[in-house]
Amino acid sequence: MAKYVYFFGAGKAEGKREMKELLGGKGANLAEMANLGLPVPPGFTATTEVCRKYYELGEEKLFKLVEPEIKKNLARLEKLTGKTFGRGPKPLLVSVRSGAAVSMPGMMDTVLNLGITSETIDALIELAGNERFVWDAYRRFMQMFGDVVMRVPREEFEHALDGVKKKYNRQLDTQLTTDELKKVVESYRRIYRKHTGEEFPDDAMAQLRRSMGAVFGSWNNPRAVTYRQLHDIRGLLGTAVNVQTMVFGNMGEKCGTGVAFTRDPSTGQNKYFYGEYLMNAQGEDVVAGIRTPQQISRQGSREWARNNGISEKERRANYPSLEELMPKCFKELDRIRARLEKHYREMQDVEFTIEDGKLHMLQTRAGKRTAAAAVKIASDMVKEKLISTEDAVARVEPGTLDQLLHPVFEPKAEAAAKQLARGLPASPGAATGQVVFSAEEAERWAEMGRTVILVRIETSPEDIGGMAVAKGILTARGGMTSHAAVVARGMGTCCVAGAGDVVIDYKSKTMHVNGVHVKEGDWISLNGSTGVLYEGKIDTIEPRLTGAFATIMQWADKYRRLGVRANADTPHDAATAVRFGAEGIGLCRTEHMFFEGDRIISFRRLILVADTVKRLRLDLAQADGEEKKKIEKQLAAPLKQYNRALRELLPLQRKDFIGIFKALKGRPCTIRLLDPPLHEFLPHDEAGQRGMAKTMGLDAKRVKELVESLHEFNPMLGHRGCRLGITYPEVSAMQVRAIVEAALKVKGSKPEIMIPLAGHVKELALQKQVALDTIEAVKKEQKLKKLPFPVCIGTMIEVPRAAITADEIAEEADFFSFGTNDLTQMGCGFSRDDAGKFLGDYVREGIYDYDPFQVLDRGGVGKLMEMACRLGRSTSPKLKLGICGEHGGEPKSVEFCHQVGLDYVSCSPYRVPIARLAAAHAVLAEKRSKRKKSK
Ligand code: ADP
Ligand code: MG
Ligand code: MG
After folding, report:
1. Ligand 1 close to Cβ of residue 257 (< 6 A)
2. What is the per-residue pLDDT for 106?
3. Pocket of ligand 1, candidates 107, 351, 364: which has the most ligand atoms within 8 Å of its Cβ, to mutate?
4. Using N-to-C axis directions, what is the helix angle for 131-144 and 178-196, rounded to 10°?
5. Model-level pTM greater than 0.85?
């Protein structure tokens, strides 16, 4: 018979850490901690398999199946604790906690203090010797049960609580007396009845059954679904449910609750024990950010006070550390921290509660961290001999490096900016944007293309959509482990939390900060690394690859097989790419070079006559006698203009290439010949056309006609790529000449000429001949027997026909570079410009797992690539293979490129470190799966 429930407690457990899939992360780690002999309140875990069954059978049938096991475990729990569930004299209270295999902070729901009923309440009061505490626990339970299980709007409970507070003139919940709390319970009862049409359940077993059902049900609530989508969490059965004996951090002054990290989750530092706690508080109070939490260690507390402008005297009086207040508990917690790190060989995030001076561990898990902390912790743990370099590389998620590659504030500009307030440095980075005060506004504004900073008193899981689109997040309340801080760090979004001087008024959409009035739409800046809030915009500068980051990258390079190049069009971008470790340029687009300064004028002159020249030349070839002379005369002026434009463009292009070759210092550079359709170089609005007409001494009508004549119904499939070179070979020749002449001027240059959009081998052959002829001409002019560099000529594979006939194409190509943007467009038949309208639906419906323009579609486009690689290498075993589409910097696509045996990927300069790490991960994943197979 299947086992659905696993017990833990009293120094041993039926589960263990390896059973995450089945017990969820929380359950597996509670079991593990119990096995380690740590002080874990006993309890049991209903497995993720039960969750799956919940969706298969429905709640009623499910409980028929598993209730016997639940009751058996409850009995065991009663025996161990000496308490009884739902009865006196010592009633057992439990928490019901969700926990899937992957942690989803704040996404699933927890019910505390379960088991209070009219039957148990008096016994509880007697037992605790504290009537007020029991009524407070009861109203908390009602609120959580109402919210989580029955979906009673949380605001109504809060409203009722506020009402009682106001009536009796209480500022804090903790000031409410027993009688006042009884009033709160009364109004909670009314609210519950109003919303559910029934009485609040007064039977402990019914409370438990319904709470467990609700946790299983919450697996598919919209918040949880959004979170999984955002974080690409797939393939899980569901959530497990943990039922655990309650311990109370809110039973008086020798009680408290907190969360701690074994290392600083923001920087990765390991200088002092890093964590926060609240005295006389229960679970969620720390995370919810309702009161300002205190620091665990004395040193941390001092640093915190300094950052918040609090004097040492005030700190010791009002915000002492746990180390100072309860030194024995602190020491035990500190020992546990060392023990857990050594055991897990990983930074841990723990939750603990102190009841009457006794420490209880409620959770441990691998701590969420910023990318900066991830690289620091990984490299430190190698130095401490806790993990291998391979582990270190595997532990840093390539995608998160993005955070380290974002700009930071320009120091002078930051120093000059007006500081408005200070909060906690909750998630590093720099953000400048316009203020909005709600998640919905953030989403609306972001959709309009604005950069926004989301400002909230505190955030809750409902805000997740707005948080995801915001450049930065600012909260007035909450600590380093508040919802805002944890979620922002996970997303890599800059966040300043708990800036207490920020007074927000949602109604008028304004905030007051130390005398400054800021309204919706005003610009502010946040430094998430220091916690400072500034007025206005601040300039940013480029990040650098140094320290632990550089170390991890060096280790990654040891493992990867794939080369990593960058897509760069300018010497500046090329230099950035080299700084980030690019081994060359995989795609240098030349079209941007036609736009700069006066060049566009020269190029427009060429476009203006190109068609005429082409036509007359064709006529000329067929004419003779008088006719021929006439055509020659007609051709003279346009041809002159055509050639003059080419002559003007040549030195400019040459200069660009010289700059790029210099920046590359001998690294290879794949240069793509002109690709976009010609109309992209012409002005489309009337003012622009008038301007162009004026510069060229033409009639504006003429320009308009020209633009119209170049109009295409489907330009992406129109006259572009090598098709332009076929029609106007002189343009290709000019570009090849500029490339070769530039390479001759910069020693060590390694140019590679890339012909775009070939679909037929003959297109490539024709363009290649143009290139070879040009090279011959240059050699002759410069009296060279041989060029000092090999001339590589290759093509992009971006038309499906090219992939299918890759064996033929390879006869003419030294290399292939997969242009996966166009290959996806043509392979899937999705217009790049129009697919945005429906691809969202396609992903939601699960037709495609991801947007195929972002993550390579392995099943279709990937097959085309596989085929092209195989066919290409069958003709030309040494054929070099690369990718230069947007996918070249996307970790999952990089893994695929490794698997099909490409030689390199090429991506934007800022993604180069991501691609390097992803390439290493691909090798490590391959190793792992081989090891698994051989077992
Ligand atoms: P989450 O996954 O959102 O962190 P948890 O299940 O960890 O939810 O519960 C939320 C809070 O409730 C935690 O901070 C924990 O400290 C507290 N809590 C949970 N179970 C117990 C318990 N048995 N006794 C005391 N506090 C508890
Ligand atoms: Mg929670
Ligand atoms: Mg927790």
Report:
1. yes
2. 57
3. 351
4. 20
5. no
